[in-house]
């Protein structure tokens, strides 16, 4: 069993494995009081005045307490992040990293701007961690790339992957958890999908082209598809020339 888990872990692509590891270690560390969540949450004031820049990253790594909700999000992270990196972004690790960076930036910007808007500022001020939102963004992008895959929710009913984010949103409402983080993930996911997939088809321009310095960080291998069972005919035998 342990060997199978180890093999499964080693076979994960680099970004998925790194993010999953950081999320599990951070959440367990907080549960064991090794790390304090108060040093991790998104606090714009401390980022600007005390230069605690790490909060812009660590708030995406903590998934609250170790409960059923944590297991659900780890499953979503391990499954849909892996599927995106292995399929939609196969051979494009830099582009996948840029997608996560874009999503994190959009989510952070929404929370910061929302915190300055009257009547909704209190709601956004309560959003201290955006890890669930980033995970939900990946689920949304995957559903847009695979809209016709048939799925089942707890064996109760079937649907196509295009409706997966809405099914999960409805489940959050049923169990009484906050839907704000899910909605933020859907907004960030749709923003990426529109700018990366829809807008280029409309205008032949790609606004989310991955910067060269990010591409330089990852040595992506070109994906070469070799045809199976290809046989090469032997060269024709040349008859000796007779004078």
Automatic annotation (TrEMBL):
<comment type="function">
    <text>May be involved in the degradation process of specific misfolded endoplasmic reticulum (ER) luminal proteins.</text>
</comment>
<comment type="function">
    <text>May be involved in the degradation of misfolded endoplasmic reticulum (ER) luminal proteins.</text>
</comment>
<dbReference type="InterPro" id="IPR035952">
    <property type="entry name" value="Rhomboid-like_sf"/>
</dbReference>
<feature type="transmembrane region" description="Helical">
    <location>
        <begin position="180"/>
        <end position="199"/>
    </location>
</feature>
<feature type="transmembrane region" description="Helical">
    <location>
        <begin position="123"/>
        <end position="142"/>
    </location>
</feature>
<keyword id="KW-0472">Membrane</keyword>
<comment type="similarity">
    <text>Belongs to the derlin family.</text>
</comment>
<dbReference type="InterPro" id="IPR007599">
    <property type="entry name" value="DER1"/>
</dbReference>
<dbReference type="Pfam" id="PF04511">
    <property type="entry name" value="DER1"/>
</dbReference>
<dbReference type="GO" id="GO:0005789">
    <property type="term" value="C:endoplasmic reticulum membrane"/>
</dbReference>
<feature type="transmembrane region" description="Helical">
    <location>
        <begin position="154"/>
        <end position="174"/>
    </location>
</feature>
<protein>
    <recommendedName>
        <fullName>Derlin</fullName>
    </recommendedName>
</protein>
<feature type="transmembrane region" description="Helical">
    <location>
        <begin position="19"/>
        <end position="41"/>
    </location>
</feature>
<dbReference type="GO" id="GO:0006950">
    <property type="term" value="P:response to stress"/>
</dbReference>
<keyword id="KW-0256">Endoplasmic reticulum</keyword>
<keyword id="KW-0812">Transmembrane</keyword>
<keyword id="KW-1133">Transmembrane helix</keyword>
<feature type="transmembrane region" description="Helical">
    <location>
        <begin position="96"/>
        <end position="117"/>
    </location>
</feature>
């Amino acid at each position: 069993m342990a060997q199978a888990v180890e093999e499964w872990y080693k076979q994960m692509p680099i970004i998925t494995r790194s993010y999953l590891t950081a999320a599990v270690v951070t959440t367990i560390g907080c549960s064991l009081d090794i790390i304090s969540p108060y040093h991790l949450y998104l606090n714009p004031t401390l980022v600007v005045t005390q230069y605690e820049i790490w909060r812009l990253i660590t708030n995406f790594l903590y998934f609250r307490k170790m409960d059923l909700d944590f297991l659900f999000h780890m499953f979503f992270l391990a499954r849909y992040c892996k599927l995106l990196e292995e399929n939609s972004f196969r051979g494009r690790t830099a582009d996948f990293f840029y997608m996560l960076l874009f999503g994190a930036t959009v989510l952070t910007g929404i929370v910061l701007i929302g915190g300055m808007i009257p009547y909704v500022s209190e709601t956004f001020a309560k959003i201290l961690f955006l890890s669930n939102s980033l995970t939900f963004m990946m689920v949304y992008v995957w559903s847009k790339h695979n809209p016709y895959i048939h799925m089942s929710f707890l064996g109760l009913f079937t649907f196509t992957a295009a409706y997966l984010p809405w099914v999960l949103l409805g489940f959050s409402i049923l169990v009484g958890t906050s839907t704000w983080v899910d909605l933020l993930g859907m907004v960030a996911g749709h923003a990426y999908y529109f700018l990366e997939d829809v807008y280029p088809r409309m205008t032949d321009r790609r606004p989310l082209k991955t910067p060269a310095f990010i591409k330089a960080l990852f040595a992506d291998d070109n994906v070469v598809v070799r045809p199976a069972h290809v046989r090469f005919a032997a060269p024709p035998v040349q008859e000796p020339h007779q004078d």
